[in-house]
Request: fold
Amino acid sequence: MTMSEKEFAALFDHTNLHAYATKGDFQKLCDEAKEYGFASVAINSWPVAMCREMLQGSQVLTGAAIGFPLGQTTIATKVFEAQEAIQHGAQEFDYLLNVGKVKEHDYQYITDEMTRLVSVARKAGIVCKVIFETCYLTNEEIIEVAKIAAVVKPDFVKTSTGFGTAGATTEHVKLMKKHAGKNVQVKASGGIRSLADAQAMVAAGATRLGSSAGIKILNELRAQNQK
Reply:
């Protein structure tokens, strides 16, 4: 992987989605994101306004998680949450699709949901990422949802929340990249805790990485480059 440290850092959404996260935790997250040059902070929708203010004057984006972490809310609820997050300053959002509907193979529902959420992002001129939660899906189901994304065209399809039974795999990243089409990027998220993990996901086709271990991974890269 021929990428500078700065370019590599810009792949990461620096993440804190814990229920017990406090203002101090968010300040630390934002300070770290600015220091290391991460692409964004990935947070739940409540602290969006606070983090946007903490990141003022930097290039780091404020990203909101919508319908998180189960995806089991109505389309209208997800739309409202996304719109409210945007009003509070969100510059990107990642929403979890209705995994149960995928398991039922109700792909019309998934299409409608994706269309509505992508429309919210388009109207606001911001990035929308669709979380599949691949650990619960068969390869065939992943392919079918990726094909829907190829038509609806969210900015990214994303593997995982990090709260499921497993995180990103290179196999799933490759499947999503292949079937989502050239206009849709892939974000790998969940279980990316080492430089080797991150490099494998990029090699598989991911152009964004979600991780709470971004600093550790960057320090690994720096140590490697200094040898």
Summary: The chain has a mean pLDDT of 97.
